């Protein structure tokens, strides 16, 4: 099935497009202020694609008609180009920072410029073009619809714990975990110039960031307000020139949005690390040449000792578990698809997400999963990928 359905567009996108012609480059530079429009160069054409709610669209342009095409993309109804006009699938050998045609790897992250997720995306793929997305779901979709090549999304933090939304989305979507990256999160209290700590009544940030600074913010007597991301909080405070409101975000976000740093390292523990997952449409081929980790999700029949039995399949083979997360689904069944039911929905009461220290190329891991399959009611391998052993 083509990722872009042929459909007529019904309403203009609320995006701003500026096209700047360059005297030295055949192609104009295109700035699009919308995380949902992608611009990709492919040899002699530029593919502009958009993903906006129900309206999936893409259009091809060359150097001469790009401006017109960009405006058409923004303003008028038209039909969608075929799948052939969109970027070709990447193979596991392209698990590096650039794609073979020389253009940069496009990596989706949630948030606006200056979010920790953007820095994590750049750490994971050093020369990438980081593409901001409003929500986690948008980032998943952007990969699935070929608008970007990868997504880098937070999964757990050493102080705040798991990011449950992304656990759920891993199961709802069919992306593969191809890597992990750990990022040291150092929060600042930011405010507009001239504003002092005593002037502040409230503080905005991502809920995880607020949780990571709980003690500091409570001791300052500030009312905490959750927003979509830390950098978005900084942007809001700057844009509205707020005098009684600060933001918890990175020093990078402070610089981007022109805010003053009132306090640095305000997280409750200096060891504040967020682990991000690197997601792709294709899995990588697991190796044994370096430390690998495998992430799985499974469900079990109800009964005494079943979870004990499930975890024993790893213990019996000396496989170390690094994370276990359970998601209760009793009152709110999740629509899930697994490897054996051709995408048909199934409903489960509980799901267990487990990360273990072994590659799927390792016989011990294969045997452990074979054993688990004997009594698990559902099992899916989310990915087998190199462990991030970098210094944080
Ligand atoms: O808001 C941001 O800057 C993000 O990148 C999101 C996020 C998260 O979801 O946990 C990432 C890292 C920090 O732990 C705080 C927030």
From TrEMBL:
Query: Prephenate dehydratase domain: which residues?
Result: 106-281
| UniProt signal peptide | none
Pfam families with a match to the protein in the record: PDT
Q: What is the lineage of its organism?
A: Eukaryota, Viridiplantae, Streptophyta, Embryophyta, Tracheophyta
* Molecular function as annotated in GO: arogenate dehydratase activity; prephenate dehydratase activity
Biological process annotations from GO: L-phenylalanine biosynthetic process
EC class (word)? lyase
Q: What is this protein called?
A: Arogenate dehydratase
| Species | Manihot esculenta (Cassava)
CDD domains noted in UniProt: ACT_CM-PDT, PBP2_Ct-PDT_like
Enumerate the catalysed reactions: L-arogenate + H(+) = L-phenylalanine + CO2 + H2O; prephenate + H(+) = 3-phenylpyruvate + CO2 + H2O
PROSITE patterns reported for this sequence: ACT, PREPHENATE_DEHYDR_1, PREPHENATE_DEHYDR_2, PREPHENATE_DEHYDR_3
Q: Which residues form the ACT domain?
A: 295-386
